[in-house]
Design brief:
The complex is a heterodimer of chains A (about 575) and B (about 425). With about 575 residues, chain A is an all-alpha fold. Chain A has a single domain, classed as Cytochrome c oxidase-like, subunit I domain (Cytochrome C Oxidase, Chain A), CATH 1.20.210.10. Helices cover about 60% and strands about 5% of the residues of chain A. Chain A is built from 15 helices and three strands. By secondary structure, chain B is mostly helical. Chain B has two domains: about 290 residues, Four Helix Bundle (Hemerythrin (Met), subunit A), CATH 1.20.120.80; about 70 residues, no CATH class. In chain B, α5 runs parallel beside α9. Chain B is globular and about 90 Å long. The chains are: A mainly alpha (about 575), B mainly alpha (about 425). Bound molecules: protoporphyrin IX containing FE and copper (II) ion. Copper (II) ion (CU) binds next to α8 of chain A. Protoporphyrin IX containing FE binds next to α8, α10, α11, α12 and α13 of chain A. Chain A: This is Cbb3-type cytochrome c oxidase subunit I.
């Protein structure tokens, strides 16, 4: 380093500071109020849920290997199939995808990116986690009692007449809803009131913008799901006659209520993923994010517009044709802000110096897959085509492209990006990259054939099918197996890093947001005093230190302290 | 940087309050100033209230829709609600909002005695509200004014005995016993609570535990208020009761008359409505059938044949000609058309009524929980002019619960 610059590097934490080790014992985790520990516990929780949901998914795919059904046999085969796909969907949506990015990564990152010591309400944060656990217990008990076969959407009147454990599962979802509401509330308040001096709204990292927009949806939409599920429970137990046609209720009302939450919920899933991708693309291209304000505003626009389009799930449920036209038109408007983001990411990469690290591999896969998912959404939003495609595999493929190809891939990218920060260990890059390639190939192998299946008329949620679809279904199943292997590989890469990984420097990728300004892992108090805030995407003074294999931030030497100590006599008498 | 600084001071303790000696005990370690803490809490509670409003909005939507679809049901059934009791409860809640607001002021001015009195009065009002509510509920349950699944009101015999409920309406013995004795069941938990608090008060008095006694005393009053409410409700229900019930029965008898084509005005639309619901599906089925029948002529077209069969089965079930094999006789459409203008329809009103007021009552119970916590904290004198946030936040919550009732009362009781 030249003498005219000084470099800043926080070094490594001591065991007493490291948030992972500063206190020990199971109780110090169970009652922790530290957002980082809570985030880590969430991470373990959602990954477990993902593993369970993933195994169920493999069950579905294996069953569909043969037109007559392969995996489940006997008289109950179709019922088992119904239960498996329902639980797969419900677990993945409520226990994994919705809490994945906001609750796990968000909890870890939001306060650190803000240079704050914790979220605004640490106790509420811990209780959100326990609510999540309770919700999970309810789901598992539904699984072990009489199962659930309504599909994740719990449509009435089937859900009020089936004798599976609808009540347990809806109670679980209800509780999970509150977990989600409290997390969102906590983040809104934290971002509003705890930004450090100098961090104006437009100096916030885009991940925080995305989290903020997500939180708005969580707070505004989830209560409606809560009351819907509560009324559904009341309908089942007391027959209150709101959703059940047998008692003069109206099932379409249920669908309206349900989608009023669940369409915004798909943005709860995808917005944080957008936030992650904005960070990843900029950091690993070592280039200032293109169109910062557009990306920030488009998150908010999506959050608000997302409330107006729920009817596109009900084009065939018997709404008036005027209503369907309006909902269709509104649906198209939502895709505009999503497209804005994609173009801005591409522009960021253009002429950047891209390092093809593992997180960046995931980010690039994301752009591919999300684009496909979003564009196919337009076919579904078009009335004339949706009448054919509704409830076919085309819809299945669409939402897996946005939820798995979008959110899951971004989540993985985020985990690989912040893993060194969270656990203080580097993983093996080349293995990480191979895993991401397997995931990409496996994913496309699974879901690309499903677009074709759907457009040829294969309906969703069927346990058996016409032999003409066999080839594509088998292709999809082999893709799923490859995808499973890829995910397992990625998991092993992470786990091995814990045992064998190199100690992570404070700033392994050259990021400029605040989380890279504290040690890896951060001390339990994050920052002793509010850190200096700069442009989160200005990489000019971040330099690669080849000897130590890490990035350090440099700044021109400034004489902050006067050379001489002031005289003993005060200036004014 | 953070780490380097603290490395140099290894000996310094880094427990939660280690480096913030300027933090008063009530200021959480992750906040810099009392203002920041207060603002965070305030924003937090406002957001929470937004979620509460949205939570109720689902039910208000349902109310609006069903009212629009069946105005006559809502008009007829709302007469079963006792306006006097509703009005009393409205007054009680409004008063409790006053005492709550006053409590916030007292916390700010550090008038601890008054603060305790105000919170205890708010709590007592909440209890009176619940007392009156249990009279309302138990009265209706006894008459069978229940959600459609269990509705059994019979104007010829509005107050059946348990045995009659079992015999005529097919309830189980225990359910019938519960319905006819529901007031006792509703009061029982509060009675247990009252006895518990009384024992606690005596015990703490005897063992001279000042603080506990100071808590138990107001709580005893609070528990008693529940029974005050029950008493008040009983007087109003029975005093004006004879008249009210007779009046209600009279008007409702009119409603039932409609079904028997007695009254002039309503009887017109009711059959017309039924006819309309008949006509629409019939038309559809026929026009589709023609095309499908054509297709089904080919033996190879199994799809069309299956569809035709399904359509025929549907049509038969819809007209109630047969009961499909293996399906319970209780199949929807058929049953409802018979029951138009009677029990099942009236049940829809009560379904919504119980959902809305029930969820509201749960919010009152929740409010009581946090108010008790506030009461204990204010007896401990936790609050001061810089730190009164919790009182303020609970106050806001309480006002919202109050406000929701202000909407429920006219919508359910008053509008005809
Ligand atoms: C980019 C703009 C998008 C458009 C225009 C769009 C449009 C649609 C439409 C019209 C449907 C209904 C199809 C049918 O049932 O016939 C649908 C289904 C679905 N979409 Fe999207 N979508 C978009 C993005 C997303 C995103 C980002 C997610 C989630 C992260 C998502 C998740 C889903 C899910 C889960 C379903 C199926 C729900 C079910 O029936 O089980 N979509 N989408
Ligand atoms: Cu949607």
């Amino acid at each position: 380093m030249s003498t005219s610059t000084i470099s800043r590097d926080p070094g490594y934490p001591t065991d007493r500071e490291n948030y992972l080790t500063n206190s020990s014992g199971i109780l110090s985790w169970m009652f922790t109020l530290d957002h980082k520990r809570i985030g880590l516990m969430y991470l373990i929780g959602v990954m477990t849920a993902f593993a369970v949901g993933g195994l169920l998914a493999l069950g579905i795919r294996l069953h569909l290997l043969d037109p007559e059904g392969w995996m489940f046999t006997g008289a109950e085969a179709n019922n088992i199939y119904n239960q498996v796909f329902t639980l797969h969907g419900a677990i993945m949506v409520f226990l994994f995808i919705i809490p994945s990015v906001p609750a796990a990564l968000g909890n870890f990152l939001v306060p650190v990116m803000l240079g704050a010591k914790d979220v605004a309400f640490p106790r509420l944060n811990l209780s959100s986690f326990y609510l999540w656990c309770f919700g999970a217990i309810f789901f598992v008990s539904a699984l072990f009692s009489s199962g659930l076969d309504t599909g994740w959407t719990f449509y009435t009147p089937y859900s009020t007449t089936t004798d599976t454990s609808v009540i347990l599962a809806t109670l679980g979802a209800f509780i999970l809803g509150f977990s989600s509401i409290f997390t969102g509330l906590n983040f809104i308040v934290t971002i509003n009131t705890m930004r450090p001096p100098g961090m104006t709204w437009f100096k916030m990292p885009l991940f925080l913008w995305a989290t903020y927009a997500t939180s708005i949806i969580q707070v505004l939409a989830t209560p409606v799901l809560g009351i819907t599920l509560l009324l559904l429970i009341a309908e089942r137990t007391m027959h209150v006659g709101i959703f059940d046609p047998e008692f003069n209720g109206d099932p379409v009302t249920y669908q309206h209520f349900f989608w009023f939450y669940s369409h915004p919920a798909v943005y709860i899933m995808i917005l944080p993923a957008f936030g992650i991708i904005s960070e990843l693309i900029s950091v690993h291209s070592h280039k200032h994010i293109f169109g910062y304000r557009f990306i920030a505003y488009s998150s908010i626009a999506i959050a608000l517009l997302g409330f107006l389009v729920w009817g596109h799930h009900m084009f065939t449920s018997g709404m008036s044709s005027l209503t369907t036209i309006i909902f269709s038109a509104l649906t198209f408007t939502v895709s505009v802000p999503s497209a804005i983001k994609v173009f801005n990411w591409l522009a960021t990469m253009y002429k950047g110096s891209i390092s093809l690290t593992t997180p960046m591999c995931y980010a690039i896969s994301f752009i591919f897959l999300f684009t496909i998912g979003g564009l196919t959404g337009l076919f579904l939003g078009t009335l004339a085509t949706d009448l054919h495609l509704h409830d076919t595999y085309f819809v299945v493929a669409h939402f897996h492209y946005v939820m798995v190809g979008g959110t899951l891939i971004a989540f993985l990218g985020g985990v690989f990006h912040w893993w060194p920060k969270m656990v203080g260990k580097m993983y093996n890059e080349s293995h990480g990259r191979i895993a991401s390639l397997l995931v990409f190939l496996g994913f496309n192998g699974t879901f690309l054939p499903q677009f074709v299946l759907g457009s040829r008329g294969m309906p969703r949620r069927y346990a058996t099918y016409d032999p003409e679809f066999a080839f594509l279904h088998q292709m999809s199943t082999y893709g799923a197996l490859l995808l499973g292997c890829g995910l397992l590989y990625a998991f092993i890469v992470l786990m091995l890093s814990l045992a064998k990984g190199r100690r992570a420097p404070a700033n392994p990728w050259g990021g400029a947001t605040l989380e890279w300004a504290c040690t890896s892992p951060p001390p339990y108090y994050n920052f002793e005093r509010p850190p200096v805030v700069g442009d989160p995407y200005d990489f000019h003074n971040i330099e690669w230190d080849a000897k130590e294999e890490k990035y350090i931030s440099t700044e021109p030497e400034r004489k902050l302290v006067p050379e001489e100590t002031p005289g003993q006599v005060p200036a004014h008498h | 940087m953070a780490t380097i600084d603290s490395l140099s001071s290894e000996s310094e303790t880094h427990d939660e309050h280690g480096h913030d000696h300027d933090h008063p005990a009530w200021l959480a370690h992750h906040f810099d100033t009392p203002e920041q803490q207060f603002d965070s809490g305030k924003l937090g509670i406002w957001l929470f209230l937004v979620t509460e409003v949205l939570f109720f909005s689902g039910m208000f939507c349902a109310y609006a829709m069903f009212r629009m679809l069946r105005p006559e049901v809502f008009e007829g059934c709302s007469q079963f609600l006792n306006t006097k009791l509703g009005a009393i409860n409205t007054g009680v809640l409004l008063f409790s909002s006053l005492t709550m607001a006053w409590a916030v002021r007292c916390a700010q001015t550090e008038e601890y005695k008054k603060l305790v009195v105000m919170i205890a009065s708010t709590l007592s009002c909440a209890m009176v509200f619940l007392g009156v509510k249990s009279i309302e509920y138990s009265h209706k349950w006894g008459m069978g004014l229940l959600p459609p699944g269990s509705y059994f009101y019979d104007e010829a015999n509005p107050h059946p005995t348990a045995q009659q409920i079992v015999d005529q309406h097919g309830f189980s013995e225990s359910a019938a016993y519960f319905l006819t004795h529901s007031l006792y069941f509703l009061c029982a938990p509060f009675l247990i609570l009252l006895i518990g608090v009384a024992i606690w008060a005596v015990y703490s008095k005897v063992t001279d535990k000042q603080f506990q006694y100071a808590c138990a005393k107001p709580l005893l009053v609070v528990c008693l208020s529940f029974f005050g409410g029950v008493g008040l409700g009983m007087i109003l229900e029975s005093g004006g009761g004879e008249h009210a019930v007779a009046h209600v029965d009279g008007e409702h008898a009119g409603d039932h008359g409609d079904a028997d084509h007695a009254h002039a005005d309503h009887s017109h639309d009711a059959p017309a409505e039924v006819a309309a619901t008949h006509a629409v599906p019939a038309f559809d089925i026929e026009s589709d059938d023609a095309a499908i029948e054509l297709l089904a002529e080919s033996e190879l077209n199994t799809g069309a044949r299956a569809m035709l069969e399904a359509k025929q089965a549907q049509a038969e079930m819809a007209t109630g000609q047969i009961v499909a094999a293996g399906v319970e006789a209780d199949l929807g459409i058929h049953r409802i058309e018979q029951d138009v203008q009677t029990k099942r329809q009236a049940g829809v009103f009560f379904g919504i009524y119980y959902c809305m007021t029930g969820v509201h009552a749960i919010h009152i119970l929740g409010g009581i929980g946090v108010l008790v916590w506030l009461l204990i904290r204010s007896i401990r004198q936790d609050f001061n002019r810089q730190y009164f946030g919790p009182v303020d936040y609970v106050g806001l919550y309480w006002h919202l619960v109050d406000l929701i009732w202000i909407y429920l009362f006219p919508l359910l009781y008053l509008i005809r």
